[in-house]
Amino acid sequence: MALFSVKTLVLLRSCMLWSMAYFFVKDPTSIAKNGHVIVLAEAMDVPHTYFRPDDPMTGMIGFFLFMWGFTDLPPLFGDNYVQYLGSIVPIRALAFLCLSAAGYLTDSPLVSNSVVFSYSFLETMVNIFLYMTLREEENEMSRQNILNTREGAQAPREE
Protein backbone atom coordinates (compact mmCIF):
# COMPACT_ATOMS: atom_id res chain seq x y z
CA MET A 1 0.00 0.00 0.00
CA ALA A 2 1.32 3.41 -0.95
CA LEU A 3 1.89 6.19 1.53
CA PHE A 4 -0.46 8.48 -0.41
CA SER A 5 -3.21 7.64 -2.86
CA VAL A 6 -3.17 8.95 -6.41
CA LYS A 7 -6.02 11.34 -5.66
CA THR A 8 -4.15 12.77 -2.68
CA LEU A 9 -0.97 13.29 -4.71
CA VAL A 10 -2.86 15.03 -7.50
CA LEU A 11 -4.55 17.31 -4.97
CA LEU A 12 -1.18 18.05 -3.35
CA ARG A 13 0.28 18.90 -6.75
CA SER A 14 -2.65 21.19 -7.48
CA CYS A 15 -2.24 22.91 -4.11
CA MET A 16 1.48 23.35 -4.83
CA LEU A 17 0.67 24.99 -8.17
CA TRP A 18 -1.95 27.24 -6.59
CA SER A 19 0.51 28.29 -3.86
CA MET A 20 3.14 29.13 -6.44
CA ALA A 21 0.56 31.07 -8.45
CA TYR A 22 -0.39 33.06 -5.36
CA PHE A 23 3.23 33.96 -4.64
CA PHE A 24 3.88 34.89 -8.28
CA VAL A 25 0.97 37.32 -8.11
CA LYS A 26 1.44 38.61 -4.55
CA ASP A 27 5.23 38.68 -4.06
CA PRO A 28 7.35 37.18 -6.86
CA THR A 29 10.61 38.05 -5.10
CA SER A 30 9.73 35.58 -2.34
CA ILE A 31 9.97 32.74 -4.86
CA ALA A 32 13.41 33.74 -6.09
CA LYS A 33 14.62 34.26 -2.50
CA ASN A 34 13.19 30.98 -1.19
CA GLY A 35 15.79 28.91 0.63
CA HIS A 36 15.04 25.73 -1.30
CA VAL A 37 15.40 27.51 -4.63
CA ILE A 38 18.70 29.09 -3.59
CA VAL A 39 20.17 25.86 -2.19
CA LEU A 40 19.18 23.83 -5.26
CA ALA A 41 20.55 26.52 -7.59
CA GLU A 42 23.83 26.66 -5.69
CA ALA A 43 24.13 22.87 -5.61
CA MET A 44 23.56 22.57 -9.35
CA ASP A 45 25.50 25.75 -10.20
CA VAL A 46 22.58 27.42 -11.95
CA PRO A 47 22.38 31.24 -12.05
CA HIS A 48 19.94 32.98 -9.75
CA THR A 49 16.86 34.83 -10.99
CA TYR A 50 15.42 38.04 -9.64
CA PHE A 51 11.91 39.36 -10.16
CA ARG A 52 10.66 42.91 -10.02
CA PRO A 53 7.44 43.24 -8.02
CA ASP A 54 5.80 45.28 -10.81
CA ASP A 55 6.68 42.91 -13.67
CA PRO A 56 3.49 42.03 -15.58
CA MET A 57 4.89 38.65 -16.67
CA THR A 58 4.82 37.34 -13.12
CA GLY A 59 1.06 37.89 -13.06
CA MET A 60 0.70 35.94 -16.29
CA ILE A 61 2.87 33.11 -14.93
CA GLY A 62 0.75 33.08 -11.79
CA PHE A 63 -2.43 32.87 -13.86
CA PHE A 64 -1.09 29.95 -15.92
CA LEU A 65 0.05 28.08 -12.82
CA PHE A 66 -3.34 28.65 -11.20
CA MET A 67 -5.18 27.31 -14.23
CA TRP A 68 -2.78 24.39 -14.60
CA GLY A 69 -3.62 23.38 -11.05
CA PHE A 70 -7.17 22.69 -12.24
CA THR A 71 -6.29 20.48 -15.22
CA ASP A 72 -6.03 17.22 -13.28
CA LEU A 73 -9.05 17.73 -11.05
CA PRO A 74 -11.95 16.83 -13.44
CA PRO A 75 -10.60 13.33 -14.25
CA LEU A 76 -10.34 12.57 -10.52
CA PHE A 77 -14.11 12.60 -10.23
CA GLY A 78 -14.55 10.11 -13.07
CA ASP A 79 -14.07 6.37 -13.20
CA ASN A 80 -11.06 6.26 -15.52
CA TYR A 81 -8.69 8.63 -13.72
CA VAL A 82 -6.04 5.91 -13.40
CA GLN A 83 -5.95 5.38 -17.17
CA TYR A 84 -5.94 9.13 -17.87
CA LEU A 85 -3.19 9.93 -15.40
CA GLY A 86 -1.29 6.78 -16.39
CA SER A 87 -1.03 8.11 -19.92
CA ILE A 88 -0.25 11.76 -19.14
CA VAL A 89 2.08 11.51 -16.12
CA PRO A 90 5.02 9.75 -17.88
CA ILE A 91 4.94 12.37 -20.64
CA ARG A 92 4.98 15.14 -18.05
CA ALA A 93 7.82 13.52 -16.13
CA LEU A 94 9.89 13.19 -19.31
CA ALA A 95 9.13 16.77 -20.39
CA PHE A 96 10.12 18.23 -17.03
CA LEU A 97 13.20 16.01 -16.89
CA CYS A 98 14.24 17.41 -20.29
CA LEU A 99 13.56 20.95 -19.05
CA SER A 100 15.69 20.30 -15.96
CA ALA A 101 18.49 18.92 -18.12
CA ALA A 102 18.25 21.90 -20.46
CA GLY A 103 18.36 24.26 -17.49
CA TYR A 104 21.45 22.55 -16.20
CA LEU A 105 23.32 22.05 -19.47
CA THR A 106 22.60 25.25 -21.42
CA ASP A 107 23.57 28.85 -20.82
CA SER A 108 20.29 30.35 -22.00
CA PRO A 109 18.89 32.62 -19.28
CA LEU A 110 15.35 31.63 -20.31
CA VAL A 111 15.71 28.06 -19.03
CA SER A 112 18.97 28.14 -17.11
CA ASN A 113 17.93 29.97 -13.97
CA SER A 114 17.16 29.02 -10.41
CA VAL A 115 13.36 29.28 -10.55
CA VAL A 116 12.87 27.32 -13.77
CA PHE A 117 15.32 24.63 -12.69
CA SER A 118 13.82 24.29 -9.20
CA TYR A 119 10.27 24.12 -10.53
CA SER A 120 11.08 21.61 -13.26
CA PHE A 121 13.09 19.47 -10.85
CA LEU A 122 10.23 19.49 -8.32
CA GLU A 123 7.68 18.62 -11.02
CA THR A 124 9.91 15.77 -12.21
CA MET A 125 10.07 14.31 -8.71
CA VAL A 126 6.32 14.73 -8.13
CA ASN A 127 5.45 13.13 -11.46
CA ILE A 128 7.78 10.17 -10.90
CA PHE A 129 6.29 9.63 -7.44
CA LEU A 130 2.81 9.96 -8.91
CA TYR A 131 3.65 7.44 -11.65
CA MET A 132 4.94 4.91 -9.13
CA THR A 133 1.78 5.31 -7.06
CA LEU A 134 -0.37 4.99 -10.17
CA ARG A 135 1.34 1.73 -11.11
CA GLU A 136 0.83 0.37 -7.62
CA GLU A 137 -2.84 1.35 -7.60
CA GLU A 138 -3.29 -0.15 -11.07
CA ASN A 139 -1.71 -3.42 -9.92
CA GLU A 140 -4.00 -3.49 -6.88
CA MET A 141 -7.06 -2.94 -9.07
CA SER A 142 -5.94 -5.77 -11.40
CA ARG A 143 -5.40 -8.08 -8.45
CA GLN A 144 -8.89 -7.30 -7.14
CA ASN A 145 -10.40 -8.00 -10.57
CA ILE A 146 -8.62 -11.35 -10.77
CA LEU A 147 -9.78 -12.32 -7.28
CA ASN A 148 -13.36 -11.31 -8.07
CA THR A 149 -13.26 -13.31 -11.30
CA ARG A 150 -11.95 -16.41 -9.50
CA GLU A 151 -14.59 -16.14 -6.78
CA GLY A 152 -17.31 -15.84 -9.41
CA ALA A 153 -16.02 -18.88 -11.30
CA GLN A 154 -15.76 -21.04 -8.17
CA ALA A 155 -19.21 -20.21 -6.83
CA PRO A 156 -21.63 -23.15 -7.00
CA ARG A 157 -24.06 -22.89 -9.85
CA GLU A 158 -27.72 -23.25 -9.14
CA GLU A 159 -29.72 -25.26 -11.63
UniProtKB/TrEMBL annotation:
Which residues constitute the signal peptide according to the record? Answer: 1-21
The upper taxonomy is: Eukaryota, Fungi, Dikarya, Ascomycota, Saccharomycotina
Keywords annotated in UniProt: Membrane, Signal, Transmembrane, Transmembrane helix
- Entries under InterPro entries matching the protein: Incr_loss_mito_DNA_1
The record's Pfam families line, in alphabetical order, gives: Ilm1
Superkingdom of the source?
Eukaryota
**Transmembrane stretches, start-end:** 57-77, 84-104, 116-134
Q: Does the keyword Glycoprotein apply?
A: no
According to UniProt, the name of this protein is ARAD1D47146p
